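Working notes for the structural subgroup meeting. M.R. asked for a predicted model of this chain before we commit to crystallization trials. I am recording the input and output together here so anyone reviewing the notebook later can reproduce the run.

Input as submitted:
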Amino acid sequence: ARAGKGVDAMHTEGGLLFLLGLCCLTSCLLSFLLVLSHARNWSQPLIQRKIVSILWMVPIYAVEAFLSLRASRHAMLLDMLRDCYE
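Returned structure, recorded in token form:
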């Protein structure tokens, strides 16, 4: 009975990582599309530069969260790298 629980936990963890990866990919794709849209319609550079820098935070945070959960040993290093962008 215990072996079954371990297998279920492994499948659940794998499913959660898959779901997290899918959400990460989706948020990155949407953010890239918005950045591209602003780049194509660059009419107010002072405002759009700030908008684009905020939009870049989405993929940075999403990828950092995914990698931190995937390789928890390196979470502190990834947090520091993410903080450099801020």
